[in-house]
Amino acid sequence: RHAVRSNRRRIAAVEGCHGRVNVRRTKEGLVSILVINAGSSSVKFGLFRLDSLEPVARGLLDWAGETRRATVKLTPEQGEPICKQLDVPDYRAGVVAALEMLRESKLVSGESAIRVVGHRLIHGSEKIRRPVRIDAAMKEVIARYAHLAPLHIPAGLEAIAATESALPGVLQVG
Hints:
The chain has four helices and seven strands, in the order H-E-E-E-E-E-H-E-H-H-E.
């Protein structure tokens, strides 16, 4: 329940960060928001309808103590869970592979279906008191505080970079 409230705040903050996000259907299907919570050994993510905030799917990318092998579990709100073992060289590649799995699942149709990505970040900075648009300058601010949460901030920045790679041009907030 707390996660849903937190996601709703993050989603609502998008308007304050970058104006309104277009929530109408595209030719490919309904637009969505992706929420990512990157930790030191796992990445939790959720896909929500942008117009109603109804959950579409949730996922977990888990390294379980391994550095080059991870498990992705994608659980649609309707349907059977999908699990896959990944051989990945690093954290960023694992996140990209999980996002690719999400795309292949047909829960996301077309490149334009995800309109915004919300990241849960631990940063500790007085400069970041509410959700903000993540751009190059904001990533530098976040990186300056890595010493405050050395297991989480680098992972969050890797997830941001992976998302930028997998979903170029999609608005990211954190």
